[in-house]
Specification:
- The strands form two sheets. A six-stranded parallel beta sheet has the order 2-1-3-4-7-8, sandwiched between helices.
- It is of the alpha/beta class and 196 residues long.
- The protein has seven helices and eight strands; from the N terminus they run βαβαβαβαββαβαβα.
Length: 196
């Protein structure tokens, strides 16, 4: 007989973001109000890709035996969610995900300031290489993913994600922006998709 595991939602924020981001807050508040049985983890990720990946893997290793885990990743968090899926097979909802962040962030090399935390750091070519090492070339189980994408994303070309996650559930909306406007419409459906 299968042993019941409580549910855990692991929300993975994007580049220069934090647990204070709007979508992270929306998911946390929804679970507090409607699904208090779900443990919500929104780690404040380190600025550098290898450190962030190590933190995420540590969190999963700590909780995987005790919880049924589902992933929500925004922007760079979507890229990291895809990497975690390749290791553990967890279902993931990707919100305007970065597909090739090692190309995108090459334009951001140099001094950075996280607008949420005021943390200052230096983004270097080494960190771009760290991102490339986390790339998942081929999606093994497209059914594990739900792509939430808005076409007028001013940061990322939405067509990259549509092509990368072909075969996955896809909700591609006209308009919008990189923050994903009106994300409040989706928490209940996200929880349902992740089987939490």
């Amino acid at each position: 007989m299968a042993v019941f595991k409580p549910s855990m939602l692991l929300y993975i924020h994007g580049f220069n973001s934090s647990p204070l981001s709007h979508k992270a807050q929306v998911m946390t508040t929804f679970c507090q109000q409607h699904r208090s049985d779900i443990r919500v983890e929104v780690p404040r990720l380190p600025c550098f890709p290898r450190d962030a990946a190590f933190m995420l893997k540590s969190i999963v290793e700590q909780h995987k035996n005790d919880y049924h885990i589902g992933l929500v990743g925004s922007s760079l968090g979507g890229y990291l969610s895809t990497w975690l899926n390749s290791l553990y097979g967890y279902k993931a909802v990707l919100v305007n995900p970065a597909v090739r962040p090692y190309e995108l962030l090459a334009d951001y090399l140099g001094p950075q300031v996280n607008p949420y935390t005021d943390e200052e750091y230096l983004l270097s070519s080494q960190h771009i290489n760290e991102l490339r090492e986390l790339d998942v070339i081929e999606i093994a189980q497209p059914d594990d993913f739900w792509l939430l994408q808005q076409q007028d994303d001013e940061v990322l070309d939405y067509r990259q994600a549509v092509a990368k996650y072909v075969g996955a559930k896809q909700t591609v909306e006209a308009g919008g922006d990189h923050s994903f406007i009106d994300f409040e419409r989706y928490p209940s459906q996200i929880i349902q998709f992740l089987n939490l």
